[in-house]
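Honest question from a wet-lab person: if I give you the sequences of every part of a complex, can you actually get the arrangement of the whole thing, not just the pieces? Trying it with mine:
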Amino acid sequence: MAVFDLILGLLLVILVRKCLSITDMFGAVISFMAFGLLMAVAWVRLEAPDIALAEAAIGSGLTGALLFSTLGRLPHSETRQPLVPRGSGSGPGYWLVTGFWWAAAMVLIATFVFSFQELQTPGLGGPLQERLAESGVLNPVTAVLLNFRSLDTLMEIAVLLAAVVVAWSMGYVDWPARQTIPSPLLPGVVRLLTPVFLLVAFSLLWRGSHAPGGAFPGGAVLAASGILLLLSGMTVQISPRGMSWLRWVLSAGLLVFVLAGVSLMAAGFGFLVYPEQWAGNLILLIEASAGVSIGAMLLALYVGGEPDMAPSQPNNPVSRPQ
Amino acid sequence: MTGYYLILAVVILAMAFHGLMVRANLLRKLMALNIFTSAVFLFLVTLARMAEPLDPIPHAMVLTGIVVTVSTTAVGLALLVRLYRRSGSLTLDSSNDD
Amino acid sequence: MSSATDMFGAALAVVGVLFFLAGTLGLLRFPDIYTRIHALTKADNLGLGLICLGAAVQSGSLMTALKLLLIWILVLVAAATGASLIAQTAHGRGIPPWTRQE
Amino acid sequence: MTTLYLVLVGVLMGNIAVGLLRILRGPTAADRIQAGQLFGTVTVAILLLLAIILEKPIYFDVALVFALLSVLAVVAFVTRSWPHPDAKDQDEQRD
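Yes, you can. This is the full assembly:
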């Protein structure tokens, strides 16, 4: 196993180095995605299946699609530009700063090696196991996310929603997206794969209560399915009514979460303090709405702006030139 | 074994920080930022693995962190595309300013 | 530990990894993109199929075996789609196929 | 038996290292994405073997999610970001 760790670490370091220093931007993006893949292997090695699932769905799938689509929006010449602008990247100042940071990093490494090796880390695994029964779920990670520290998760969904608001406030994007489909194969395959995506997404969502999975990986798979539909050219014309519906879906996760918390407060418990007999069902409700909402939010973030449903001719949905 | 992963996390952290500071291209800076967060997560999860029994609380924190990272990246990329359309450059080099 | 099914599963995994090696060799050594697609797509997916089969033999449960079958089918679909898309687009963009030089 | 599987995982990781050479050499972006496809398949295989080694069937599910999403990257690449010959410089296709 030690050799395995060594190779894994070496590969990770090489990939980071490649990603940050290879001139070709496609090479950098692919190295970055490979880094994500190997990080998932590292999570498996460190016995963190929940994180491995999230990394599999978000780290490699979504981020890769995001980066490739961004590269496509930039002209080709930009993807091969030199690593550092003229005038920097050489000279004593550069090497002084870099040398300083590397020396600081080495000191940090030495400190960590010597302190953490001796540190006793009892962790909270024991107390968590004792109280797991009253959380309403069997998977400890879900118990932490949606019961013991549900406020953090609430804030996280708020952050996602805020990100969508930021993206939408930057302006409209083409809708439906302009593109040429290289082959009729793609829509056919996507039509076949979409049910599988939905099945996996909802099974991940459902099993979050008793096994690794839950709202984040489920939502991410849902978003990936939507991205695949967009990429294969299957878009829908969004009407004004559809837009308001979309806004509700986007905010559903946060709304249900806050409503649950407030109504628990009104019923005499604390904010998001679940009574033991309802805990399981409440968590399921919150998780389901959060999962669908996270999927929609990640998809909205991929689209990168508010879908443009303004004046398009009925027969000829011309997209607005950018 | 866990000590090894701690060192690995710090090495990756330092490399990513170096990239974040030195590279001018904003797309590369965003990737460096992503790697940086991955290194932090690796550190946390390794600490969780060292605890006895396994500590799931850092796992939950990291899960939250991954989602926040992806939303940050998406917003950063959207900003980047806008910046490019506005200024024709992917860097924040002051000589390129309008 | 070393029951017959375990041995059989391990043998399948070994053969699968050999196919991976062949595919990677092709990716590295073949002269142009079309030949590399050909090497990578076929060899790697056969290798993965063998590894899936080996894992299924070892797991001994029908659910796991079906899951492994699904994994293999998904990777096959992804690889076939990807290979076809890349080759068609490369051809459309005018990347010339390699021909043997004199 | 575990040792054998660990050796196999090591060989698969060696495949990734070799694939890195293809990323470095290119020459076209399509060659690089092919190396990416190789990484995807190899990672699924590594996860399967790790699941056997650690005797945790849950990691089959991680492999399943990877297998599901492996199509996304290549489709995103082909439909969105393949450098078009109309672009200013065409050096990708020449070298």
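Two things worth pointing out. Residues 87-95 of chain D have pLDDT under 50 and may be disordered. Chain D touches chain A through 53 residues (CB under 8 Å).
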